[in-house]
C-alpha cells in the first residue's frame, strides 16, 4: 500500500504517543532482585504449592529458565526439571504488589494520574503525548530514560511498546519489544502494512483467543493483513462488537482515551474458591459458605456499602465450573435472592445458608462462590447523646461486626475467626494469607 493511501486512511485518526510498559517476567524478576540476582541471568521459577492444583503450577519463570528448561507459565510442578542451580520460589503476592506500586510511582513522575493506567500487575499504559517533550528529544529517548530509572531504583527490566494508539503500542510490545535487544519497539500507523499485517500466528496477538482464531482460519483469514482487507460489516455480523474491534486492531486503530472517565454500572463484591477436595458433607460446605459471607461482609462495611442482592454459586465435582443462571443443573448451581439492604455478617451468612439448604441436592461440591450486589451507600446518621431513643433506631451497625473489623484490620484476617472456622472442612484460616489465590497476605480492598 502506497504512502499516500495510508495517509488518506489515517488522516482523521488522532496520533498520540502511547507507552505500553511491561515488567519483564515480573514475579520471577522480583524474586531474583530480592536475592540480589540479575533477573535476566537467574535460573528461577515462581511456583504455587496449592493442594487443589495437583501439586501446583509455575506462575512465572526467568528468561533463562524459559529458554534452557522449556518452562512456561502453565507447567505443572511435577514437570519442572530438577536441575542443579534452579531456584524454586514460593509466590509472595504482597511483595509483587508493593513492587508494582513502586514502579507506577516512577511512571507518575512522567505523566499525571489521568494519563496513567495500571493495566495489570506487570503492565501499565502511559499516554505521554503532552509530556514526553519535557523529558527528552524523542519518545524513544524518554522510554529509555524510564527503563534506566526503573532498573536503577527497583532492579526490574522493562519492555516498552510505543505506538500512535494504545492498541498499536500493545502490539508493538508483544510482537517486537519483548524480543528486541533493547526491549523497545516504536510503531506508527505507517508501519502497519510492513510490521503488523505479515503476522500469521494469531495466538501471539492480544485479544485473539483460540476459538476466534479458529473461526478466522475457517473464513479464510490467515493473517492480520487478511483481517485488515476483510469486510468490516461482515466481521461485525459474524462476531458482533468483537468483529468490529478486531478489524480496527488489524489497522492499529484504537480511539479509547485514558483520560476519559469510565462509569461502572453494576459493582459487586464477591469471593470464590476451588476447594482442596470434593466436599460431600452438608455441614462442611455450609461452613465454607459462611466463612466467605463473613469475609465479603467485612469488605462491604470497609467500603461503606450495603447489598440488596445475594448470590450463591456451587460447582459440582468433575463437571467443570459452569452454571445455569436460572435453575440448578448437572454442572452446578446458581441461586440469588433479593434482601433488604444490609452489610451485617450474621444476616448475610443466614441468607446464603438458607439458599444452600433450599437448593442443594447432595452433589459433591468442588467450587463455591458468593456475590453481594445491588449496592446502596451505607447511611451514616449523627447520634445525639441527649436523645438515645432516635439514636438507637438510626444506628444499624452491629457492634460485634464493628469490633471484629477493627481487630482484623489491625492484626490480620486470621487474628479473630468464628468458631466454625475451626471445624473440619473450613478454609478461612489457611486462605487468610493468600492474595489472588497465592501466598502473600490478605486485605479488605
TrEMBL record:
One of its GO terms (cellular component) is cytosol. GO terms for molecular function: damaged DNA binding; DNA-directed DNA polymerase activity. Pfam families: IMS, IMS_C, IMS_HHH. It comes from the Bacteria. Coiled coil: none annotated. InterPro entries: DNA/RNA_pol_sf, DNA_pol_Y-fam_lit_finger_sf, DNA_pol_Y-fam_little_finger, DNA_polymerase-Y, PolY_HhH_motif, Rev_trsase/Diguanyl_cyclase, UmuC. Residues 18-209 form the UmuC domain. Keywords: DNA replication, DNA-directed DNA polymerase, Mutator protein, Nucleotidyltransferase, Transferase. The keyword Nucleotidyltransferase applies. One of its GO terms (biological process) is DNA repair. Belongs to the DNA polymerase type-Y family. PANTHER family: DNA REPAIR POLYMERASE UMUC / TRANSFERASE FAMILY MEMBER, DNA REPAIR PROTEIN HOMOLOG YOBH. This is ImpB/MucB/SamB family protein. It comes from Fructobacillus ficulneus.
